[in-house]
Amino acid sequence: MRRNVRRIGVVEGSLALACGVLAAAAVKTPVFQFPLTEAFRLTYDGEIRGVPVTSGASIFFGTDKGFVYALTAGPSPVAWRFAAKAALLGSPALGGKGLLISDASNRIYLLDPASGRLRWALALTSRITAGASWGPEDSVLVTVDDVDLVAFDSQGFDKWRFTPGTTLRGGPALVAGDILIGTAEGEISTLEASGRRLRTWDAGGAIAAPLFADRGRVYASRADGTLICLDSVSGKILWTFRLGGTLAASPVADADRLYFTVSNGVLFCLNGGRGDLIWWHSLPAKSPFPPWVGEGLAVAASRSPILAAFKADNGDKTGTQDAGSELRAGPARLGDRLVINLYDPDHALGTMVFFIGAPAKTPVPAKK
């Protein structure tokens, strides 16, 4: 197998500002009531890239200035900052072996999520076209030049390369230890952990966005504006749904419901097993962001200042929040805070705003 990376020393690009394990805070389940109450805000260098990733009491994200941040909701919110060589590509990927990031210099980095320390970095000779993600057996998966899916082990050494012979649509999806990848020609290939192709299915049309998998089902957004659902074992198309556009961001699964935004600026909620429409709403602007779903709410951001909240089960609107400037990422929850991101292009500074949620009311026992 040809070598396509250059291994970099473990201190290159590292700028850890603080160390220590980021312990999860024990908080009561919040109830987010709109309009929200702002707790505090934090300014950072650059514009956020991808989707913030939360784990316990920590949130991780990268920017177009090449910085990766770990924040907490505590009195000293910046746990650490890491400096990559170039703008970040997509979202960080958190796994058992650490935090994966990739950048526009075609490097992959593995960081210690507790301290921000660099464990290893790879410089690829090919262009990264879909950011690094975790695969089966702690493998690292990355799409390069839109045509190859490359796997490395958890130490950053080559494992295998898959070349389907046509353009890949983003990164892979994982189902029961297998890897699924879609192509612009409408093929969906299933690979085992070794990279060997097990089978190929026909999606019935060109695939326009990365695949999504949940509960033994695979979802593919076709270029003709149709969302299809396939059985992950047989490849049989279980249902189709006409979207009027293509997926703008990865869906969010909650119970047997799917929540997602479409390129035409609509937020949908479907039954994931049957494909039935549960509800939909037009957002104030187009939204390339996934919604946040939790505590009975679906909260969506769009390329506008308005954060919109709906009841997750029936779509009833529960309120809005005017952020004052255009939102630049989907909302996320950190402990008892709901987090949004803004950007000031005149000063090239991003702002993360933390909104407080009211603690859930403790039920009062009935008098006997």
Residue share in helix? under 10%
- Give the overall silhouette: globular
Arithmetic mean pLDDT: 90
Largest sheet: 5 strands, antiparallel
CATH class of the domain at 126-247: Mainly Beta
Structural class: mainly beta
- Number of helical runs? 0
The CATH architecture category of the domain at 126-247 equals: Beta Barrel
Q: For the largest beta sheet, what order do the strands appear in spatially? A: 1-11-10-9-8
- Roughly what fraction of the amino acids lie in strands? over 45%
List key phrases describing it.
35 strands; five-stranded antiparallel β-sheet; Lipocalin; globular; 368 residues; mainly beta
What can you see in these coordinates?
The chain has 368 residues and is mainly β. The chain has a domain at 126-247: Lipocalin (Beta Barrel). Helices cover 0% and strands 49% of the residues. The chain has no helices and 35 strands. It has a five-stranded antiparallel beta sheet, with no helix packed on it. It has a four-stranded antiparallel beta sheet with strand order 3-34-33-32, with no helix packed on it. Strands 4-5-6-7 form a four-stranded antiparallel beta sheet, with no helix packed on it. Strand 25 (257-261) and strand 26 (266-271) form a beta hairpin. The radius of gyration is 21 Å and the shape is globular. The relative contact order is 0.14. Residues 1-28 have low confidence and may be disordered.
